[in-house]
Structures are given as C-alpha cells and as structure tokens.
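Data availability (excerpt). The following record was deposited with the supplementary files.
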Amino acid sequence: MTWPEEGRRWCLSKKPIGEEIGYKKASVYSAKFDDLYQTSWAFDHVQYDGDTLKLNLDNYSGAGFASKSKYLFGKVSIQIKLVGGDSAGTVTAFYMSSDGPNHNEFDFEFLGNTTGEPYLVQTNVYVNGVGNREQRLDLWFDPTKEFHTYSLLWNQRQVVFLVDETPIRVHTNLEHKGIPFPKDQAMGVYSSIWNADDWATQGGRVKTDWSHAPFIASYKGFDIDACECPASVAGADNAKKCSSSAEKRFWWDEPTLSELNVHQSHQLMWVRANHLIYDYCTDTSRFPAIPTECVHHRH
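Predicted structure:
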C-alpha cells in the first residue's frame, strides 16, 4: 500500500502521554479518514460532512469502517460525538482486533440509554481469544454534546484506555506471572454502530425505539501513531520490526511509557472511585475464583 506523504513521516509524538519522548520514529500518522480508513459495510449508511464522518443506524442496518492496515504497538485515537437523545438499545464501538479464533482485541463499547440517563462505556480485553474481561463506567461529561477523544495506547508493557488523555483502564503485562499478554498479533482498527437491544441497555430490558431513528454517531480526528505491519509478514517478524533495538528506537518502548506516571495513576484512581460501576474482577457470580490477573494488577 502506498500512503499519501502527509500520512507517513518522521515526527515527534503529538500525544501528551508520550510527548516527553524526543526520539525519532517511523510511524503512520494522519487526521484524514481516507488516508487511514475505509467503509467496511453499509456504505449507504455513511455520510461525509466536511472533516466529519457520520455512521447511521436505522431499523434496516447499522454501519462500520476499518483501517486499511494493521498495526503492532503505538497509539490510536479517534474523536467521537455519540448518539444524542434516546439512544437506548444502540451500541457504538471503537476497537482494535487481530484475526482468527485466538485473536487479541481491545474494545470501547458505548452503550446507549434512555433520554436523561448517562451513557455507559464498556471496555474489554481479549488475549488469545479469551475475553469476558468487561469493565463499565459512566463518564464525567455528556458524550453526546461535543466531540471527545478516545485512545488506545499499546506497547510491550501495557495497554492503556484513555478518554481525553485520562486513563480509565490499564492492562499490564504479567507474563512473569504466567498470564498471556497481547504482543505478537498485529491489529486492525475498527468502529461501528449497531442495534444491541437484547443486552445493551439495562440488560436488554429497554428496547430500541425506532421512531427516533436514524441514530447517528459522528467522528473526526482520525489519528494513528503506530507501527504499520504488512499482511504478508509473519507475527514474529512484525514484533521484531516494531520493537526497539540497538539500531532503532520507538517512542512506545521508552521506559517512561512502561507504566503510568504519578499524575496518571491518580487520574485512574479518581475514575475508578467515582465512575466505575462494574468490574469483572469483583463479580463473584461470574467468577467464583478471582481471575489470576485481578490478583496481581495494581489497577
């Protein structure tokens, strides 16, 4: 694939979580949808409005888009304004995923609600095809009024879910405890909107009211600052290509990004204390034995 010049360049990280890194890096970067993404289904439910992309959901179809390439390590961000008004039954997703039954995946799922009730954000992590690692929280703002930035930072030490640069979840590499960590499967980047009224709102008790359709999720600011992996290259070779060595240094491998700094740790503690409403680690009905990673994770 040949990328436009503005989409491939040597640059410093523009992201606050990595801005202290002064090393050059080769990575894909753009803020234009067409440079990085393509519509993957329901083309007639996708609208362009200047620099804004809109996905529509009605009682015929939802819609989705996907990155043109796959990536291993780096940071992916998107600005989203979620469905306003009565969005019960709808789900808007932003996620990264590899292919196959033993895939790795990092999910943001925005669960709609009845008018006046808060949106819920569900995050999930799959490693080697094993998921069921959900956390849910409400937000400290109305995500339907303005655009907010949702990001995934991924390196060999941690996966960080961020909302407007505030960490809301950290998945730490605990391989030394015998727990698998996603580090050798390149991932595509995806987003979609669909009807999930069998589970999304109050456990499926509140159904989608199609009289409010179309439900519209809006997007802009399509940033991918990550290591691009050709489909023809084996996983082990991609891992080597995208990891720092004596010959090359990547910003995502810098020691300052191996864990949250003190300020970010305090932010995460604040989010968990004030906005976390469900954590699989404390759900003894689903997990009578505490999942191993929950015993060792600090966050």
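Summary of structural features: The mean pLDDT is 87.
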